[in-house]
């Protein structure tokens, strides 16, 4: 009976470590997707002069989550019956994207900083703020990639070793 408990403790700790490592590994990819989606939005604003609901809906179809959730939610919030302002719609969309992805509060702050300028300022100012957000997302992506490389392996093997240690103590 003790060996069954040992195996359960090792399995649970290993699963926790692998899950934590997976979360760390997912964040750089999510940030890269968001950055490329913001580049697409920049193109839609700068060259296409497309209305925001249309641009959001179009971009949502091209990218996976969390960008798809971000732009789909923003497009839905701009459409009737809710018809929120662009900043409020963007803010709600960012909150929805953060819930679905492996994004941190810092990433949320970067994305939220874009909201007040979307549809409220001239084209050049919107493009300037989008480029600033893309640069900040790129820096966050580099930090996230570094964290993944350093801590991902520690979580994977540390979970297994911690589980074995705790299991041996309980035997």
TrEMBL record:
Pfam families: Spore_III_AB
InterPro entries registered for this protein in UniProt: Spore_III_AB (IPR014198)
Protein's name in the database: Stage III sporulation protein AB
UniProt source species: Thermaerobacter marianensis (strain ATCC 700841 / DSM 12885 / JCM 10246 / 7p75a)
């Amino acid at each position: 009976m003790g060996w069954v408990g040992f195996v359960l403790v090792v399995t649970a700790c290993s699963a926790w470590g692998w899950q934590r490592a997976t979360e760390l590994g997912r964040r750089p990819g999510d940030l890269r997707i968001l950055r490329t989606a913001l580049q697409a939005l920049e193109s839609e604003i700068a060259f296409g002069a497309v209305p925001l609901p249309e641009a959001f809906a179009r971009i949502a179809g091209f990218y996976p989550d969390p960008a798809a959730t971000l732009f789909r939610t923003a497009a839905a919030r701009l459409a009737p019956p809710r018809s929120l302002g662009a900043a409020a719609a963007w803010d709600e969309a960012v909150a929805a994207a953060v819930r679905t992805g492996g994004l941190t509060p810092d990433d949320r702050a970067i994305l939220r900083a874009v909201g007040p300028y979307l549809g409220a300022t001239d084209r050049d100012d919107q493009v300037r703020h989008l480029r600033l957000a893309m640069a900040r997302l790129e820096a966050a992506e580099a930090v996230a990639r570094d964290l993944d490389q350093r801590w991902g392996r520690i979580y994977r093997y540390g979970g297994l070793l911690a589980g074995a240690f705790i299991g041996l103590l309980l035997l």
